[in-house]
Amino acid sequence: MEIIVQGLKEGFLLIWQGDAEIVNVTLLSLQVSLTALVIAALIGIPLGAALALRNFRGKHIILNTIYTLMGLPPVLAGLLVYLLLTSRGPLGQYELLFTPAAMVIAQVLLAAPIVCGLTARAVMALSQEVYDTAATLGASRRQATLTIMREARMGIVAALTTALGRVIAEVGAVMLVGGNIRWHTRVLTTSIVLETRMGNFSTAIAIGIILLVISFAINLLILALEKRTFRYENTIQIT
């Protein structure tokens, strides 16, 4: 218990002093994870919506595959990206292995199925009811689709925040393809592993506190968006 208390004290002190290495790994973590999230959103939201709104042969197989990939083990994702980017792999000529770009690719592989799968579920939960209502009111197919997406926006936001929570706390894949190189590819989670192995518990705790703060900020964002949506809907109903 004494180690934990002392570690907390020293950890808060490191954060207060703005330790250069902690600042570096925090900024790199946010850069990599947010970039991966944006790319995953550009892939996952349109694909998830298309799967939810269209009927075609093989749709259930594709959806089941995406739902399976939502639980893809991070180490396996890292291994696949490693094999693609290694010097003997198909993308080895680009020399991306052990760079932040490789970490982004690994996190996109983890985040995109989550965004796609949860978006599809959110849209499917509303699609028929909202589409029928919009069609009754004379909306075109395009207008009805936009209405469905607007009504499903909180589910889509939840998909994005879930994906961000997974990738920013990920260890195995980013360590495998990034190499945990100091000042270059070391991020919050890999730093915690390294500092704990070295016995630097205060630094590990400081980094852990930053991760908790980021997670707390994500939850605050979700609550703020939910409250804003609830007030907006109530205002429309009153009007």
Question: What does this molecule look like?
Answer:
By secondary structure, the protein is mostly helical. It has one domain (2-238): MetI-like (MetI-like fold, Orthogonal Bundle), CATH 1.10.3720. Helices cover 79% and strands 0% of the residues. It has eleven helices and no strands. Helix 3 (59-69) packs across helix 5 and helix 5 (100-124) packs antiparallel against helix 9. The longest helix has 38 residues, at 201-238.
Q: What attributes characterize this protein structure?
A:
11 helices, mainly alpha, 79% helix, MetI-like fold, 239 residues, single chain
Strands, total number: 0
CATH class: Mainly Alpha
Number of helices: 11
What form results from the Cα inertia axes?
globular
CATH architecture: Orthogonal Bundle
Examine the coordinates and then state which fold CATH places here, giving the name of the CATH topology.
Answer: MetI-like fold
Proportion in helices: over 70%
CATH fourth-tier homologous superfamily: MetI-like
Secondary-structure element sequence? HHHHHHHHHHH
- Mean of pLDDT: 84
SSE layout and pairings?
Blueprint lengths: L1 H16 L2 H34 L5 H11 L4 H12 L14 H25 L2 H10 L4 H11 L1 H16 L3 H7 L9 H10 L3 H38 L1
Helix pairs in contact: 1-11, 2-5, 2-8, 3-5, 4-5, 4-9, 5-8, 5-9, 6-7, 8-11, 10-11
